[in-house]
Every structure is written in structure tokens, then in C-alpha cells.
Amino acid sequence: MSVWLAIPILITANWLTGALLLRQFPAFTVDRLARLPAAIAFGVGINGWLVVISAEFGFYSPVTLALLWLLPISIMSVRLLVRDIVKPTPAPQLHPSAALLLLWLPFAAWLFLRPHEFVIGSGDAGVYVNLAANIDKTGSIVFYDQAVAELDPALHDALLYRLPQPTGANHTYQAGFFATDLAQGEITPQFYPLHPAWQAVAYTLGGLDAALLMTGMWALLSSFIVYLTARDQLDWRIALLALAGLTVNALQIWFARYPTTEPLTQFLLWTGIWALGNWLGGLDGDSAEDSRRVWALLAGIMLGQTMLARIDMLFILAVPVSIAVWLWLRRHSWTAAAFWWFALPLSLFALHAGLHGVMQSRPYFNSVYGFMLRVAGRSWYLPLAALLILAVTLFVLLRFRQRIDQLAQWRRPFLLGVIGVVVLLALYGWFIRPNLFIDTPRFSLEQENLVRLGWYLSPIGIALSVAGACYLIWHINQRTFFTIAIGLFFALLYLWSLRNNPRQIYAMRRLVPAVLPFAMIAAATIPGWFLAQRERLRWVLGIVIAVVWLGALAWSARGFVTQRDFAGVTAQIEAVNAQLEPRAVLLVDDAQPVGYGDFIGTPLRFLFDHDVFTLRNPAAVNRTAFMSQLRRWHDAGRPIYWMETPDGSGWPLDDSLLQDQTSFLITFPQMEVTLLDKPDQILDQVWAGTIWRVNIE
Description:
five-stranded antiparallel β-sheet, alpha+beta, five-stranded mixed β-sheet, 59% helix
């Protein structure tokens, strides 16, 4: 199947699932522009969950994929046939501005659907891609590697990487793949399952290139959802400006091309926020029961699935708790408000995420939550302060529940206080914090996080985002509450600590799901407000602010628009593979914790089906055991190769065993690895080495 057919087929299949679901609610009222992504989102929620379950239980396959898609389709079609089919409520008319989306779509597709060719190992992006290919081939997330199981235990520390701090596994087979049971050859991949499961579907339909396009597809869908969120909660002018700002932003472009989970998380999160606003905003009106249920269900599914996409989205559980308290204070019936249509699916996905972490991703689960507990222990005052604020808030709510309306008189002072805190934190983060602890030995330099975000949003973008956030807080209502609350929460969380690493652009990925879209909406609020005024001077001022802001964003994106990292790598790794016989055993000489054995070895293992081991610890080589292992591979009819690399320590046995020398050279462009400055240089990377045939006879 053509790679460019795979994505339309995926979108159509999900739309059909969701469209049939929406037909079960004939009184659901929404315009056609919103009905389309709502249907796609429901399909993504249903089908994605079934795919994850199939991969967790080890029975994913093209046949299973087709049957799992037909299952909900058949159930909903039969239900429509056996009941009286009610004609859906007529859709509201679209605003003429929606026609501008026809100009946006091809431009955004050109920007987003140009993926980085990240198929190498070591980085999270490459691990996701290779894991997706392995799910397609083995049908399972956790899998069993026969070569690992048959490896002599005396060679474990030499040919596998021993973890300095075991968290459920003592070794990794390759970066991102934990060896959780060496006797059985059990390999447990890192990361949570939803994103690689969807990549596996694309790989099944259109191969490696289709899997690489998935993040671009999610970025297109999520950008559209951000537009709908701003349109439904604020104004169509703000929505169009936010869409334009998000589309030309360097971070959105970069991670739309980068095969990690951020664009999928962005789509899930903002679809949930959009649905929350439409659900809660309609509770005090005359919205039909079908509409309340649909929006609540969509919000529950989308927000719940963020916890299957990312391990750090546990904070989403605060949303149903907050809504339950709010409904209780307002004396709304939880049943009448369709609260359970929201809370039950969200809770189900939270339970699923927890079980997956414990049962199928234990080393990763232990590592991440162990880190969080250590951070909480060092910064004990932060969770203590949060608990204190929560206790005081609950006390006030319980104390004044019978007179809750009287608290309205404190609305303006309270909101002014919140605005004051936001402004002070922004001033502190931009002007004061970067100049504190200049001599810190930490490489992360967390105190510069807001300034570094300004590299990609521009200084005027930061200023407009802060001003727009203050405007949104002042005009907050039940439709916009969670848009503001979630955006500010994640901004505070990640601008305080990004858990940086030396690859600066990669560290910024944590801001992509929540902070970046919220910043775009907030920044667009200011010029959008001026554009909504009837006075010509204000309207012109709005145009000027919008042009300057969007121009600054586009200027900040220079270099990121044209660059595609790792271009040509796939073909060059295929050339390396062509030098190896099928089902070969490849031994890589590289004692680095992460090196050639991960860079090249990972795709050679998972894309081309060789067994790959890396000489991680030359000092741990038991020569007798090593020679015996080579003989067993030879006797099993396996061709054996030794890959010599610049950082290697050399062949540990007699050189006479090495014959038939060949070489490889892999070159590719990559954005520079930098920490202290915004990356703007494109560097040519070179990997070279020698491949020897190992002759045991």
C-alpha cells in the first residue's frame, strides 16, 4: 500500500467508527466543522484502545486489526438497524471565516508532513519507531528474544548494558529495551503504549514511512482542535490567529516531524479540553441530554487516554475531582449532568495505565515515579504547600456551601490576586531567575526555562501570552475554566523544571502538549480583542499586533522549517544491511553506554531482523564462554559478523577468525546539539566502521 494512502485510510476508518457512534445520539447538536473532528476523535479513542489491548496480550496482527475495527462498527450498525432511526438535529450554520481553513490545511500539511528520518536507536524517537515495527512483526509489546535467552550467562555483563541503578531489570538489551528476564529472553520496551501502537498500525498499512508520518497527522488534527477550542470558548478571530501562530511555531513544526508522543498527547489533551468546555458550558443552558453525554464521554475518553500515551499525565485525575466538587457546590445532579459519562471512561483508562505500568512497563514505571518521589523529597515544601492550599480550599467550600453565592463578591479581588501572581511569576522567570545561581554546577540550568521558551515564541510572544492569560483569567467562566487551569498548571510545572538534557530542542518537547497551544491562544487573545472592536483605530492596531507577533514567530522558526534531521539514514542503513546475510548475528564493538550498537544496531535488529549484541564491557569478556557462544551460533547455521567502530576496544579473540572485510559510511544532517543557546546550525554527522565476517571453521 502506498504510504500516502495509509494516513487517509486511518483517518477515514476512525471517522466511520466515530460517525456511527454519534448517530447513537440523534439530538447531539454541533456544526459540521466540529462534528468531523469529534467523530475522528471518538474513532481514535475506541480503535486505539483496542489496538493497545491486542498488543498487550500479544495478538496484534493485520487480521486482528481488521476484526477489531469491524467489532465496534458492527455493534453500532446493528443497534441503528434494530431501533427507530431518528433524524439527527440539523447542524448550525458555519461562520464564513471557516473557509480560511481551506488555505491553512495544505500549508500546514506541507510543514508537518515532512518527518525527520529518525529510525536510529538510542533516542526516544527511534525507539518508538523500532518498537512499532516490532509490534507489527511479533504482535506484542513485551516480547521474547530467543538469542537473548540462549546467550551464555557468563556473557551478560559483557554483551548487555548493566544498569547502574536497577529498577525492575538489571540490564538493557539496547537503549530503551529492558532485559527483564534473561533466562526467558523477555524484553520490556520503555515508554507507554498508545503512541507506538498507533505507529504499528501505520507500519502495518504503509511501512516505515507511514509510521514516520503519524506525528504529522496528529499535529494537523490537534492544531484544528486548538482552533475549535478557541472558536467555541472565545471568538473566531482569536481562533484563526491561534491556529496561525501554532502552525508557524518552530516547536510545533519540529515535533510534528519528530516521531515521539507529544503530538498525539496534544491531540488527546486539547480534544478533551474542547469537549470539557462544550460540556460544562452547556450545563446551565438548555443543551439536550444527548449533547451533554456526547461531550462528557468525549472528554473522558480523550483525557483518559493521555495517561496511556504519557506516564506523566497522572495530574489529569484532578479534573474529575474538581468537576465533582463543582457540581456538588452548584447542586447539580451528577447523573443529570452526565458526570458519570465523563468520570467512568477516564477512570477506566487511568486504571489501565496503572496496570500497564506495573505489568508491562515496570522498569520505566519504577524509574519515573521513583524520580518523582525523590524530587518531592528534596522539594518537600512544594507538595506540602499544595496540600495546605487544598485543605484551606476544601474548608472554605465546606464552610460556605450553603452560602456559596455570597463568595461571588470576592470574585474580582480573587482574580486580581491570581493575575498578580501570574505577572509576578512571569517577571521573576524572565528577569530575575535567569540571573540566580549563575555558577550552578547543574547542566540543566532550569532557571532559564522561560527565557528559552522565548527563543521559540519570541519576546513579544511571551509578553502577549502573559497579557492574554491575564485577560482570560479576568473573564474566566465555566466554559474556559479548564483551558486556563490546565494551561497554567503545566506552564508552572514545566517552566519550573523541564528536566533538561544537553539536547536543548529535545528538552522543549514537554511544553508541546499543553503549554504551547495555551500560549498561542493566550497571545492571540490580545490582537483578537482589538480586531473585534468596531473602531477603525483599534482594528488597525489589532492587525499591526497580529502581523508583528506572527512575523516574530515565523522569524524564530528560521532553520526549523527547512531542516529534516537524519535525512537519508534509512537508505544508508539498508546498505549496511545488504552487507549482511539474512538472520545474521552482529557483534558491535562499542563500549560506550550509548553508541553504534544502539544507533545502528537497533534498526538492524527490529527493522531488518538480525540478532545484535554490543561489546559493552570488554573487561567482562569470558573468552572461553565467548568462543563457545560463537560455535553455538555457527553450528545453528547463523552467519556471524564483527562491526569494528572508532570507539571500540578491539576483537577479544584471535584475529585469524576475522575475514572478508567490508566498510560502511553513514552521513546525515542534524540540528546541532546545544544547551546554552538556541540551536541554529546544521551539522553533518558521520558514522564509519568496518564489518568483518567471523569464521569459526
